[in-house]
Design goal:
This protein is α/β, with parallel strands linked by helices and 195 residues long. It contains seven helices and seven strands; from the N terminus they run ββαβαβααβαβαβα. 35% of the residues lie in helices and 17% in strands. Strand 5, helix 5 and strand 6 form a beta-alpha-beta unit. A seven-stranded mixed beta sheet has the order 1-3-2-4-5-6-7, with helices on both faces. Helix 1 crosses helix 7 and helix 4 runs parallel beside helix 5. The protein has a single domain, classed as 3-Layer(aba) Sandwich (Rossmann fold). The two termini are 31 Å apart.
């Protein structure tokens, strides 16, 4: 199992485009490091977050195939699960979407029982939604169905929510949601959650 581990010092950013960040009315979602980052579907989400979290200046570990044992290995306070499936990524890991959904559900359940904040992150936009998938491929939406309704916070690229899929889940489940416009806005958006 490949682990990507990074810890970074606090970086002060000169400016943050707060207008790019929105949250559910009346709620200011907060979470704390250290953070365990994993994927539900083995997409590029965790790799993208690697650079972003480094700039935010929080302690985090990336474990693409994280299990309950990984979650218990350190005193994690937050779990970020990126949503969106990659058939290529799952193929390379030798797993199926069913394996991923089971592993992720068990991980989220263990995190919630341990009072670890679960953040469902959909950061790759509409290309990680069924609209961009091959005909009959519903793995992206299955990943969303497993993670989003069971998260404590949703962290979503606005373009990937153009059909309000995440807004509907957030409102139905009363989950605070932070949206960002562009990839460059992710640093500021995550600082609002973790600082």
């Amino acid at each position: 199992m490949k682990h990507i581990i990074r810890s970074a010092g606090i970086i002060v950013l000169a400016a943050v485009l707060s207008s790019a960040v929105t949250a559910q009315p009346g709620q200011s979602p907060k979470a704390s490091p250290p953070i365990l980052v994993t994927s539900c579907g083995q997409s590029e989400g965790p790799s993208s977050l690697n650079t972003i979290l480094k700039r935010v200046g929080v302690v985090y570990d990336i474990v693409p195939l994280a299990t309950v044992s990984d979650l218990k290995a350190k005193p994690y306070k937050s779990l970020i699960v990126t949503m969106g499936a990659s058939l290529k990524g799952m193929g390379a890991a030798g797993i199926s979407i069913d394996d991923e959904l089971k592993r992720t559900a068990e991980l989220i359940d263990a995190a919630r029982k341990a009072k670890i904040t679960v953040i469902g992150a959909h950061i790759e936009g509409m290309k990680r939604r069924a609209q961009g998938a091959e005909v009959g491929d519903t793995t992206d939406e299955q990943s969303i169905d497993t993670v989003a309704p069971n998260a404590d916070i949703l962290f979503v690229k606005k373009e990937g929510n153009s059909d309000n899929r995440f807004t509907i889940i957030a409102q139905a489940k009363k989950i605070p949601m932070v949206e960002f416009e562009k990839n460059m806005d992710m640093v500021g958006a995550l600082e609002k959650i973790f600082k």
